[in-house]
Amino acid sequence: MKIEDLIRPNLKKLVPYSSARNEFSGSEALFLDANENPYNNGVNRYPDPLQNRLKAELAKVKGVKPEQIIIGNGSDEILDLIFRAFCRPSIDNCIILPPTYGMYRVLSTLNDIECIACPLNPDFSFNIERIIKSVKENTKIIFICSPNNPTGNCISIAELVEILDVFEGIVVLDEAYIDFSDQASAAGLLEKYPTLLIVQTLSKAYGAAGLRIGFGLGNWEIITILNRIKPPYNINSLSQEKALSLLQNEYVYKANLQQLQVDKLKLEQAFLQMQFVQHIFPSEANFFLVRVKDSKVTYNYLKEQGIIVRERSHELYCENCLRITIGTTQENEKLIKVMNNFNQINR
Ligand SMILES: *Cc1c(COP(=O)(O)O)cnc(C)c1O
After folding, report:
1. Collapsing DSSP states into helix, strand and coil, what is residue 216?
2. How confident is the model at residue 345, as a pLDDT?
3. Is 205 in the pocket of ligand 1 (CB under 6 A)?
């Protein structure tokens, strides 16, 4: 299957909005083309629509070519663009692997695309055979989240390849948490598998959830179509600048990652000592899923003490589970203290 044959027919006719700045790349010029206000206040000019400086830096950090990158206003924008590029409303469908990130379903509904749920195994491992079997006519996308939110486990490269080898549509691999993981990114597969699109974000490991910068890494053909259909100025100039400086400041990024790793282990150890904790699911992310005796009671107690965690009980196979994000060392110590008090009460 060629990428070209997967693209929605209406997009083949699309003439993208062309900004004058697309056609000129110098900086020493009089810009009288875009009806901007000429008085410099730092943001009076439209941002670079293709984010070329940011892409050059991302390409270096991620080991890909700039032509293999699409940048979105958060990875949620990339996910939405993928639906718009490949799925015909009320005809096509996608596959998700619950329990997983909620936005895949929200965006499929928004785009009027049927969402086929193919559950993970009860221990949250990936059931590759079942995933391949649930592909139907007009299945255009399979969403795989690895490390998976909320469970924290990864798909292996071998399992991913099994899917890529047989599925004829687009495989979206959401690697929002990959920088926390021992497993390497699947970016090495991009050359061989043109239907793979990897989605990452600066929201988690890079500590920039407020910037709204997500990005897709893929074959140039997929990237070209996504770039054509995205809103022209989707990343504002302040976010582009700040993202660039965060990527260049590798030292802070690495120090934070290391601290979170150490603190996660400590937090997990402390939790294991508590009687109401029944199971901690092994996690490759900056959170872990924990099964407790009664998640509602635990959640409410924490909330009364001013600590907000995520209750995931209603998700498949997540009965009595809380998802806990690793905080600063002090925040984690406060959590442990409060949990110990709760443990005393619940003996
Ligand atoms: C947090 C998260 C994202 C990030 O979304 P942004 O829009 O980039 O902030 C993407 N996927 C998953 C699974 C997440 O948990």
Report:
1. strand
2. 84
3. no
Rounded Cα–Cα distance for residues 115 and 140 (Å): 11
pTM to 2 decimals?
0.96
Give the pLDDT of residue 20.
Answer: 64
Side chain identity at 261, as an amino acid letter? Q
Q: Which regions of the chain are under pLDDT 70? A: 20-27, 347
Would you state the structure tokens that stand for residue 27, as one six-digit string?
């900086």
Are the beta carbons of 104 and 147 closer than 8 angstroms? no
* 224 vs 218: CA distance, rounded Å: 10
Q: pLDDT digit string (tens) for 159-185?
A: 999 999 999 999 999 999 999 999 999
The CA-based angle 98-208-62, given to 5 degrees, is 75
Q: At what angle do helices 75-86 and 103-110 cross, to 10 degrees?
A: 40
pLDDT for 346: 75
Contact 82, 272 (CB under 8 A): no
How many Å lie between the centroid of ligand 1 and the Cα of residue 13?
31
Closest by Cα among 78, 188, 190, 88 to 140: 88
Ligand 1 close to Cβ of residue 49 (< 6 A): no
Burial of 306: CB neighbours in 10 Å, binned 0-12, 13-18, 19+: exposed
Question: What local confidence, expressed as pLDDT, does residue 24 receive?
Answer: 65
